[in-house]
Amino acid sequence: MKTTKDIELKIKKFEDIGKIVLSMKSIASLNVQKSEHIINSLRDYENEIINSLQKVLSFFPEVSLAFKEGKKAVVVYGSDQGLCGLFNEKIAKKMEEIFLKDRDFEGFIVVGKKLDESITDKKIKTFKAPVDYESIYSYASELMEYLSEIYISGKVNEVYVAYNQFMGIGRYRPVYKRVIPFEVERRRFFSFPPVVDMDPSQILSHLIIEYLFAGIYRAYIESFLSENGVRLMNMNNASKSIERNIKKLDVEKNYYRQEEITDEIQEIISAYKVIVGER
Q1: For position 188, which CATH number holds?
Q2: Does the predicted TM-score (pTM) go above 0.70?
Q3: Which of 86, 107, 125, 176 is placed for a possible disulfide with 162 were both Cys, Cβ 3.0 to 4.6 Å?
């Protein structure tokens, strides 16, 4: 038979789990706030770089983009941590369906240990996924350096980024885009090009590097935001479930406490009868 002590121990276990969940919920919430704060600015910044590229290519038609098409690599962003549902499985399945049947496909560059478990075929390299907002910039720099190496060496000619785009807390969609090569429409802005101190091809090179880094960095932020949005939703659901269980156990504890009190009263009455009978 259950006792109130047994139930109190269960309640204590749920309360301890609740503290852990609350801590994880706070971390996820903070990560979401930090990422949401910057994501729109990054999207605008990327558009500004594209606009600048258009201007350089339009002002200086002699400058050309020397890109080749062919061998493809896909950077797929996932997570190092769990408790985010099918976050990794969905993006892995989607990208495998799209790229594995492509004859020019060289392989996946995987970001995240959990995603690495979901992608089983044609992996070029695996990188760690960020577990906090502050580490994203250094991770993006490391990945940018690696992509530059394999592109310059001719190992790949095309680079895509694939990530779960943030659609709201607990909502996301797998997306991908090509970052190398990219197409920029040439437009005519003025009759005469502006006077510049730097060679136009150098300006273009700097803008291309900035554009690539912005794309890689934004993909990190988008994926990190989506991951923590899912985790925040899951922790909210877990908190509610714990609260419901504690309430049920409180009701059960009160019921068994009443039973115990009744038993105690009956024991007292029985003892009293025995004592009175003995007299």
Answers
A1: 3.40.1380.10
A2: yes
A3: 176
